[in-house]
Sequence to fold (226 residues):
Amino acid sequence: QKEVEQDPGPLSVPEGAIVSLNCTYSNSAFQYFMWYRQYSRKGPELLMYTYSSGNKEDGRFTAQVDKSSKYISLFIRDSQPSDSATYLCAILTGGGNKLTFGTGTQLKVEL
Amino acid sequence: KAGVTQTPRYLIKTRGQQVTLSCSPISGHRSVSWYQQTPGQGLQFLFEYFSETQRNKGNFPGRFSGRQFSNSRSEMNVSTLELGDSALYLCASSLGVVDSGNTIYFGEGSWLTVV
Fold:
C-alpha cells in the first residue's frame, strides 16, 4: 500500500464552483500535512499547512484533516481560471523533513 | 525575502556525463532537501541535509549525491547520467525540523534533459 494516495484526475469544473481535492494516507502516526499548487513548468507553491487534525482556512482555501479516516482534503471556494494547476498533497513521513507526495490532481477551471 | 534559488534552471547533458545542481535556501533556513519529479514517478525524495550533515536519504542509486556547505547552500551531483535521469530537480528548504509553526518551501527547480 502506498503511503499517500491521490486521485490524479483530471478534474474540470466551471468558474465559481467549489472544488474538493482529496488524499488518503496509510499511517495514523503522520501529523504534518501540506497542500502545494504547481503550475506547468514551475516549482510547487505552498498553499496550506496543517498540523494534526481539524480545519484550517485561508481566503478561498480550506484544508481539512480527518485522522480517524486517514483522509485529508483541500476545498477551493469560488474557483477561478487562475486556479487551474496541479494540486499536490504532501505528508511528513520520515525522519527529518522527508515529504511523501501524492501523484497530484490536475484541475482545470473553465469560464 | 528571497525564496529558494536554484541554478541552473535548464540544462542538457549527454549520457555518461555528470551534472551538478545548486540550491540557495531561504535566508536563515538550515534544512535543504532535494526531490526528483518525473511524469511517471511524480515527486520523489532524494535526500535532506541539515547543518552540513545528511539527515535522510531516499531510494536512489549511489550515482545521486549531495552536500551542504556551512552557509546552508547545497549542491547535488548525478554521475554517469542515464536517459531516465531526465527530470525536474527540486530543492526545498526549511528553518529546521518541521513543527506546528515551520514548514517546507520549494524552489522553481532545475530542468535536466539527458540525451
Remarks:
- The mean pLDDT of chain A is 94.
